[in-house]
Amino acid sequence: MTTVTPTGYPVTLFDGPEANGVATIVGTLLGQNFESFPERVKFARKIPRPITIVSTDTETACTIVLGTDEAVVFNDVVGRPSVTVYATVDQILDVSQLPMKAGGLIPVGFFTNRGWRVLKEIATRKLVIKGLLTHTVTALRTIALVSVVD
Amino acid sequence: MSHPFFSQEWCDAAKAVANANEVMYQGFKDPATFTNRMAFGTLGREDLVTHVEWKAGQIVSWTPAQFDESDLWVIIDAALPTWRECAEGASEGKKLLMAGQLKLVKGPITAAIENANAFNSFLRSWGQVDTDWNV
Fold first, then answer.
1. Which domain holds residue A18?
2. Does A18 touch chain B (CB under 8 A)?
3. Bridge partners, B61 (sequence order)
4. A16 touching B (Cβ < 8 Å)
5. Prediction ipTM score
6. CATH number of the domain residue B105 falls in
7. Which one of A111, A127, B40, B54 has the lowest number of neighbouring Cβ atoms within 10 Å?
8. Could B100 and A21 be called an inter-chain contact, meaning their C-beta atoms sit closer than 8 Å?
9. In this predicted model, what pLDDT tens digit does every residue of A53-79 receive, in sequence order?
10. Host H or E run for residue A51
């Protein structure tokens, strides 16, 4: 296993040097976000089940498991994710630039040009967030966790 | 005449091409504040490393390795065939990053995300340099 950043809430790549590209990027992003926005740790701990991100155009996936003391990012699909995001690289880049407030519960980013574009992709099922309706809060928190915007 | 990849003459030619690349400039989140030093390395080839110094979204210096690692904001490594793939437009840099073929060794991932379009266009502009890839 590889620990991406030594913070109070470290993010570990379960597969270490064998981590795939999306796991490495997501792990690095989470680790740097927890350093830049430590308040996100609080709501990260409230996500009980795994979250999976599938990069559809690179055909790779990773699963994030958010524990009490650390986050672990696995290659591929692990466990029973409550939310699974199927997105292209461009869609992942768009989603990760949406500003979200209150741990994602106030999704202000959806009211930007980029946000409208993301909503349109969701509506036309070009971007699929499985669990968006049944685990809405977790889906919104997921976006907030990967957002690079304060 | 083709220039050996990452040689000084290649860097000079690539600098001229990149600085004339309006799409790249427009792709920066905030070109006015894009001032930093970056390294591009080649996996398995310690001799093939280049350092690029940016000031306000324009390249002011592009040379073989010259800065200390501590002075570098971002380090990105890839295999030689991957750099060629980027330059020739066979694949986009942002997709290769997500596929793990471009490796962010040092630096904020936020920079790569927010400037992904500029980064793509920057790498694609390398294809305009007549390059000798047999290095």
1. 2-146
2. no
3. B53
4. no
5. 0.85
6. 3.30.1050.10
7. A111
8. yes
9. 999 999 999 999 999 999 999 999 999
10. strand A51-55
